[in-house]
Amino acid sequence: MQLKIGWIGALALLGALAACGGAAEPDGTDTTTESSTEDAQGLATLRRMVSVTVSGGGTVAVSPGGSVCSTASPCTLRYRTYTKVTLTANPASGATFTGWSGACSGASVTCVVDNRQARYITATFTASASTAPATPTTPATPTTPATPTTPTTPTTPTTPTAPTTPTTPATVTLSVGSATGGSVTSSPSGIGCGNGGTVCSASFSSGTSVTLTAQPASGYTFSGWSGGGCGTAATCTIALGISGISVTPSFVQTIVAKSIQVAWNPSTDSAVVGYRVYHGTASGVYGEVLSASSSSLVYSTSASGSHYFAVSALNSAGNESPHSAEVVVAVP
């Protein structure tokens, strides 16, 4: 007679086995023995198998439980039904994880399954590809060298003449260009050029270091040298070789601002709040307009020649009076 057992019967049978002292299956995370019941939670007390096989060089870590499976040590684990089981593939050195088969699929190193039923899973690892060395080419067969000819008897070389040693000139000329706006002197002495000096070149022994010093005249500033490897410092030292050297200083005239005091009789109109001062360098042509709150101002300029001024008054409404008579100031 064939025995058929439905879910309730199976649960009852498991309960009977437990009552009879049957051994409980091990749990991946819980070693407590649980009694089976015949209510709706009976299914969750069952243990389902998770089998992990490893092919190739690598391991698989299983959680929960912390088991590690390998080719030499496959894992057969049991968990309560519906437990989420996480498998993580770890390739060994020189190996590559290529994918899952069975209850897991794909090539992701992590796979999560639930054990509603028995799960069989295989992780496959392959050895990493290595580049084989290229096959060396067969060397060409060497050709037989030609029989060397007998060398002719060498002729006796003539004795070479020794090169002549160039003579170093005894003196070298150092020249200083136009020094308008200042003077240049040398150390050792020999050059005194510009600003009353007339000696703008001198001869010195080859190998001598000569220091030139530029001194600007009143109203000028020194701006630098050209030639001789000199820069913008007023002092330049030149090491004389075997060729003459020429340097030129540069002086720039200093612009000096001049002040012009412009004053006028204040307006007697109480409505006046200020003045406009018109300035130009030609009579009646004013290219500059200045503002003043009192009856005088100081005008600064560096331009010499004639300067023309005229003044008008302003009230608070912005109305402007006619210009005053023009005055002219000569700036030297």
List keywords for this structure.
Immunoglobulin-like, flat, 1 helix, 3 domains
Shape category: flat
* Number of structural domains: 3
Main pleated-sheet profile? 5 strands, antiparallel
Major beta sheet, strand line-up:
12-11-10-14-16
CATH class of the largest domain: Mainly Beta
The CATH topology annotation of the largest domain reads as: Immunoglobulin-like
Order of helices and strands: HEEEEEEEEEEEEEEEEEEEEEEE
Question: Which band does the percent of strand residues land in?
Answer: 35-45%
CATH hierarchy: architecture of the largest domain = Sandwich
Overall mean pLDDT stands at 81
Distance N terminus to C terminus? Answer: 142 Å
Poorly predicted segments: 1-40
